[in-house]
Amino acid sequence: MKKARLVKKTLSAFLLSLFLLSLFPGCGEEKAEATLFVMDTASTLRLEGGKAEEALSRMKEELTRLDALLDAEGEVLSSLGRGEEVRNGELAALLRETLRFSRETGGALDVTVNPAVEAWGFRSGNYRVPSSGELSALKEYVGWEKLSPEGDLISLPGGFSLTLGAVAKGYAGDRLRAIAGECGVKRGVLSLGGNVVLIGEKQTNTGWSVAVRAPEGGYALTLSLSDAMAVTSGSYERYFEKDGKRYHHILDPQTLSPAENGLLSVTVVSKNGLLADALSTALFVMGPEKAAEHWRTYGESEGFEILLLTGDHRILASKGIVPHITGFGEGYGELVIIE
Ligand code: ADP
Ligand code: MG
Question: Is the pTM above the cut of 0.70?
Fold first, then answer.
């Protein structure tokens, strides 16, 4: 079990869907840097300016704390899965936020899909294709509407359990950004798996260079971003193959099977990390048309932009992100602007 998790972690470390092209500019200010394995992924934290050292050690502690709190196999989520009541104000608030996204995306984000995540073997690493009968039987134990934290009290109906994999790193990114702010960190790059948090600017009026990975290797496009979080959910991040067919880890809560709609990845850029993470998963499930419609409805009011990568090598980009695109990878020139 431990071994399977370790393999999974190592794999995801190599399969970052977003990667940074920027190197840290040299400068006389306090610098701090660390790499660690948390939340099933390799994270690198690089900070500069203010109390960078103090910020780094607080960030490491915070990641360890959140890893335990939000892990599907951790104490808190395990007790919930056994039908026990849990009192935890922070988790209740986080769940309320994710439920808002479930509502707004018509249930495409559903943290109660955990029984299906387990049935496909995405937790243990013992991958298998469940029968359609098994999946329809599991539907009884999936449904975000059944989840309603009251104050700080959380409980689940029998047979239900939670996975916060779709939102944990985004929430963690928000927490780390807050720490950076409290410590007066001037600039920094935090990479939590496929989630990149950019603090400040690389240099005055210069953004950080971030690349969106192409499934076949290399990158699809590069972006210049400052003070934002960029999160990618892709079908090539975690998957297995069986009888020549590929099964990835983002499940359509309607079918409890991997979402299939022509999308290879969804990148969401926002100052709100939880939103970016929640929506990258949800829009991936919704498919290109509904994802574009979701951006038209909520993009401006909630403050986010989207980039969709399709199987036929097109890039669909919401209007506001277009000026941030600095280049395309080989085979990825076709840009469709969503407005
Ligand atoms: P990653 O964790 O690779 O960055 P995501 O943020 O897209 O990718 O989250 C995927 C994880 O979320 C899965 O591993 C699974 O645990 C969980 N998950 C899968 N499908 C859904 C869904 N429709 N809604 C909520 N969580 C999901
Ligand atoms: Mg996500």
Answer: yes
